[in-house]
Amino acid sequence: MGRRIMREEKYHRIVVDGTPYYREYYMGSGRYGDDLYTEEELVELLLEDVVEDTIEVEPYKVECAIRRIADHDDRNLIRNYLLFLERLTEN
Predict the structure, then answer these.
(1) What residues contact 5, with CB distance under 8 A and at least 6 apart?
(2) How many CB atoms are located within 10 Å of the residue 42 CB?
(3) Coil, helix or strand for 63?
(4) pLDDT tens per residue, range 22-76
(5) Burial classification of residue 64, based on how many CB atoms lie within 10 Å of its CB (0-12 exposed, 13-18 middle, 19 or more buried)
(6) H/E element holding 7?
Protein backbone atom coordinates (compact mmCIF):
# COMPACT_ATOMS: atom_id res chain seq x y z
CA MET A 1 0.00 0.00 0.00
CA GLY A 2 1.28 3.48 -0.88
CA ARG A 3 2.35 6.08 1.61
CA ARG A 4 -0.25 8.81 2.17
CA ILE A 5 1.02 12.36 1.85
CA MET A 6 -0.12 14.58 4.67
CA ARG A 7 -1.15 18.03 3.53
CA GLU A 8 -2.54 20.85 5.64
CA GLU A 9 -5.02 21.89 3.03
CA LYS A 10 -7.81 19.66 1.81
CA TYR A 11 -10.24 20.08 -1.06
CA HIS A 12 -14.00 20.17 -1.02
CA ARG A 13 -16.00 18.90 -3.96
CA ILE A 14 -18.57 21.46 -5.05
CA VAL A 15 -21.16 20.22 -7.57
CA VAL A 16 -22.67 22.94 -9.74
CA ASP A 17 -25.44 21.84 -12.12
CA GLY A 18 -24.15 18.26 -11.92
CA THR A 19 -20.54 19.23 -12.69
CA PRO A 20 -17.99 18.62 -9.90
CA TYR A 21 -15.44 21.30 -9.06
CA TYR A 22 -12.87 21.40 -6.29
CA ARG A 23 -11.89 24.24 -3.98
CA GLU A 24 -9.01 24.26 -1.55
CA TYR A 25 -10.13 24.29 2.08
CA TYR A 26 -7.83 25.25 4.96
CA MET A 27 -8.92 23.22 7.95
CA GLY A 28 -7.12 25.37 10.52
CA SER A 29 -8.83 28.61 9.52
CA GLY A 30 -12.02 27.19 7.99
CA ARG A 31 -11.42 29.31 4.87
CA TYR A 32 -11.52 28.47 1.19
CA GLY A 33 -8.86 29.22 -1.40
CA ASP A 34 -9.60 31.51 -4.32
CA ASP A 35 -9.44 29.03 -7.21
CA LEU A 36 -12.04 26.54 -8.36
CA TYR A 37 -10.60 23.49 -10.18
CA THR A 38 -12.00 20.82 -12.45
CA GLU A 39 -11.05 17.26 -11.52
CA GLU A 40 -8.47 17.16 -14.30
CA GLU A 41 -6.90 20.44 -13.14
CA LEU A 42 -6.78 19.27 -9.53
CA VAL A 43 -5.14 15.96 -10.42
CA GLU A 44 -2.52 17.80 -12.49
CA LEU A 45 -1.90 20.28 -9.66
CA LEU A 46 -1.50 17.51 -7.07
CA LEU A 47 0.76 15.45 -9.31
CA GLU A 48 3.03 18.46 -9.92
CA ASP A 49 3.35 18.78 -6.15
CA VAL A 50 4.24 15.15 -5.39
CA VAL A 51 5.96 13.70 -8.48
CA GLU A 52 9.68 14.35 -8.14
CA ASP A 53 11.01 12.96 -11.42
CA THR A 54 10.06 11.17 -14.61
CA ILE A 55 11.96 8.01 -15.44
CA GLU A 56 11.55 6.71 -18.97
CA VAL A 57 12.45 3.12 -19.74
CA GLU A 58 12.74 1.80 -23.29
CA PRO A 59 12.96 -2.00 -23.04
CA TYR A 60 14.40 -2.38 -26.55
CA LYS A 61 17.31 -0.03 -25.77
CA VAL A 62 17.92 -1.77 -22.44
CA GLU A 63 18.06 -5.17 -24.13
CA CYS A 64 20.45 -3.84 -26.79
CA ALA A 65 22.72 -2.46 -24.06
CA ILE A 66 22.66 -5.78 -22.20
CA ARG A 67 23.66 -7.64 -25.37
CA ARG A 68 26.74 -5.42 -25.67
CA ILE A 69 28.02 -6.64 -22.27
CA ALA A 70 30.86 -8.99 -23.13
CA ASP A 71 30.80 -11.19 -20.05
CA HIS A 72 28.04 -13.83 -20.10
CA ASP A 73 27.75 -13.93 -16.29
CA ASP A 74 27.41 -10.13 -16.12
CA ARG A 75 24.64 -10.22 -18.76
CA ASN A 76 22.76 -12.86 -16.76
CA LEU A 77 23.23 -10.91 -13.53
CA ILE A 78 21.75 -7.77 -15.13
CA ARG A 79 18.85 -9.69 -16.69
CA ASN A 80 18.02 -11.38 -13.37
CA TYR A 81 18.12 -8.03 -11.60
CA LEU A 82 15.76 -6.52 -14.19
CA LEU A 83 13.36 -9.43 -13.71
CA PHE A 84 13.47 -8.79 -9.97
CA LEU A 85 12.69 -5.08 -10.51
CA GLU A 86 9.83 -5.90 -12.88
CA ARG A 87 8.30 -8.22 -10.30
CA LEU A 88 8.58 -5.49 -7.65
CA THR A 89 6.63 -3.08 -9.84
CA GLU A 90 3.89 -5.66 -10.46
CA ASN A 91 3.03 -5.87 -6.74
Answers:
(1) 50
(2) 19
(3) helix
(4) 999 998 888 999 999 999 999 999 999 899 999 888 989 999 999 999 999 999 9
(5) exposed
(6) none
Instruction: Kindly report each contact of residues 2-5 with a partner whose C-beta sits within 8 Å and lies 24 or more positions away, as own/partner.
Output: 5/50
DSSP-derived 3-state class of residue 91:
coil
Cα first-last separation, the chain: 9
Taking the C-alpha atoms of residue 21 and residue 39, their distance in angstroms, rounded to an integer, is: 6
DSSP three-state, residue 11:
strand
pTM of the model: 0.56
How many beta carbons lie within 10 A of that of residue 33, not counting itself? 13
Closest by alpha carbon to 10, among 41, 38, 33, 40? 33
Helices (H), the chain: 39-50, 59-67, 72-90
Coil, helix or strand at residue 22: strand
